[in-house]
Write a structure and sequence with these properties.
- The protein is α/β, with parallel strands linked by helices.
- The protein has helices at residues 18-26, 40-43, 52-56, 103-106, 122-132, 152-155, 157-165, 183-186, 203-209, 216-228, 246-260, 278-287, 310-326, 340-347, 354-363; strands spanning 7-11, 33-36, 59-63, 70-72, 86-88, 91-92, 97-98, 113-116, 138-141, 171-177, 194-199, 210-211, 232-240, 266-273, 275-276, 298-300, 306-308, 333-335.
- It has a single domain (66-363), classed as Alpha-Beta Horseshoe (pyruvate-formate lyase- activating enzyme), CATH 3.80.30.
- Strand 1, helix 1 (18-26) and strand 2 (33-36) form a beta-alpha-beta unit.
- It is globular.
C-alpha cells in the first residue's frame, strides 16, 4: 500500500463483497477496522481535527453505493465546449493532496475516502448504455471524484474494470491518475479498450502544489511502460497555472514528454486553466497558505469561478498549441471547461459537438 490509512470502516452487509475481502486481506495489520451500521457517520469530518479534510483522506469507508454509478461529466454543460466524457463514480476522494483540488470544496462535508463494495453493479448500467445507443462509442472514466489508481494496490479494482471493458468494443475505459501505480495494469491484456491518462504539471507546480503525487518524470515513465504493454495513453495539462516562467516550464514539460512518447502514440491531450469558486479558493489558501500557485491574477467569471486573467490564460493555451504544431504533433486536443469562443481563439476553429468528440476520442 502506497498511502497511509488511520482507520477503515466497513458498512454492515459489505464484508462479503469480493472488493471488501481484498481490501481487508491486504491492509497492514496495524490499521484498525470497525464495522458500522451506517457508513454516513464515518464519512463526515473528524471533530477536533486541525485539518478535517486532510484527516478525512486518511480514513477509508467501504460502503454500498445506492445511486447510479454512471453519469455525464459534471464539467459538461451548454456553457462550455464539451468532450462527451462519461464518468463512473466508483470511489470518492483521493489520498493525494493537491492544493488546487476542487474536492476540498465538493467533499468538505464528507471527506473520508469512500470505496463502493458493489462497484460491479455499474457494469449493468454500462451494458444498458451501449444497448440503447448501438453504433456509438463511449469514453468512460473513473477519475472524477477519485484518482483511478491511487489505491489500486489495495483494491485491484482496475483488474475487474479492464476485464469488463476489454470485451466491450463500443466502450473505452479511461483510468486517470497522478501516480505510478501500474503493477496491476501490466498483468492484464487491455485488448485496445483501455486508455490510461496522466495529469502533468511542470516540476515547479509539482513541488509547490501536488503533494504525495508521483513526480512528473515518473508519470511519463509509467505512461511509456503501459503504452509498451498495449494500452493507449493520454495526458491532461489541467490546471494550467500562469506563474512567472510558466511558458518556459510548460514547453520544457512538453519536450520531455515528446522525447519519451512519440506524438503519434498519444491519443489526445486536454488543457484547462486554473479555476476555483471563491469558496474553494478560500479553503485552498487556508490549507496551503504558503503555495504561490494559489496567488495568481484571477478574475470572477460569469460562471461564478475565479479564472486566470483571460489574456494570460489564452497566451498559455496558444503557446502550447503552437508548440505541438511546430514539432509536427498531430495530437487531438481539446479545452476543458472553456467556452466555444475560447476554443476557436486557440485552435482556429469551433469545437465539434460533444457526441462527435466523444466518439472520436473513444475510438482513436
Amino acid at each position: 500500500m502506497k498511502f497511509d490509512l488511520d482507520a477503515v470502516f466497513v458498512e454492515h452487509g459489505c464484508a462479503g463483497y469480493p472488493l471488501a475481502t481484498r481490501i481487508l486481506r491486504a491492509l497492514p495489520r496495524d490499521v484498525p477496522v470497525t464495522h458500522v451500521a451506517d457508513a454516513r457517520e464515518s464519512t463526515r469530518p473528524a471533530s477536533g481535527a486541525r485539518d478535517p479534510f486532510g484527516a478525512g483522506k486518511r480514513r477509508m469507508v467501504i460502503a454500498r453505493r445506492k445511486t447510479p454509478f454512471l453519469a455525464p461529466c459534471p464539467a459538461g454543460s451548454s456553457e462550455f465546449a464539451c468532450c462527451g466524457y462519461l464518468v463512473l463514480t466508483l470511489a470518492s476522494n483521493c489520498p493525494m493532496d493537491c492544493s488546487y483540488c476542487f474536492l476540498q470544496e465538493f467533499l468538505a462535508d464528507n471527506p473520508a475516502f469512500q470505496v463502493y463494495a458493489n462497484f460491479t453493479d455499474s457494469f449493468d448500467e454500462l451494458d444498458r448504455l451501449i444497448g440503447n445507443a448501438r453504433g456509438r462509442s463511449f469514453r468512460v472514466g473513473t477519475g472524477d471524484l477519485a484518482d483511478s489508481l491511487a489505491f489500486d494496490s489495495l483494491t485491484s479494482m482496475s483488474r475487474d474494470l479492464i476485464d469488463f471493458f476489454a470485451s466491450r468494443e463500443n466502450l473505452t475505459l479511461e483510468l486517470k491518475t497522478k501516480t505510478g501505480e501500474i503493477e496491476n495494469l501490466l498483468a492484464m491484456d487491455p485488448r485496445g479498450r483501455v486508455l490510461v491518462s496522466w495529469t502533468l504539471s511542470p516540476d515547479a507546480v509539482y513541488r509547490s502544489s501536488e503533494h504525495l503525487t508521483a513526480p512528473p518524470a515518473a508519470r511519463i515513465a509509467a505512461a511509456r511502460a503501459v503504452l509498451d504493454a498495449g494500452y493507449r495513453v493520454a495526458f491532461h495539462l489541467d490546471p494550467l497555472i500562469a506563474y512567472p516562467g510558466a511558458e518556459r516550464d510548460y514547453i520544457l514539460l512538453i519536450d520531455e514528454l515528446l522525447d519519451t512518447i512519440a506524438p503519434k502514440e498519444i491519443s489526445f491531450i486536454s488543457m484547462g486553466g486554473l479555476r476555483m469558486t471563491p469558496r474553494l479558493r478560500g479553503a485552498a489558501r487556508s490549507r496551503f497558505p504558503g503555495d504561490p500557485m494559489l496567488c495568481g491574477e484571477d478574475v470572477l467569471a460569469s460562471d461564478g469561478r475565479l479564472r486566470t486573467f483571460t489574456p494570460l490564460r489564452l497566451n498559455l493555451y496558444r503557446t502550447l498549441a503552437d508548440r505541438f504544431r511546430k514539432v509536427g504533433a498531430e495530437i487531438p486536443a481539446y479545452l476543458c471547461m472553456e467556452a466555444a469562443s475560447v476554443h476557436e481563439s486557440v485552435f482556429g476553429a469551433a469545437p465539434s459537438r460533444p457526441a462527435i468528440i466523444g466518439n472520436r476520442l473513444a475510438r482513436d
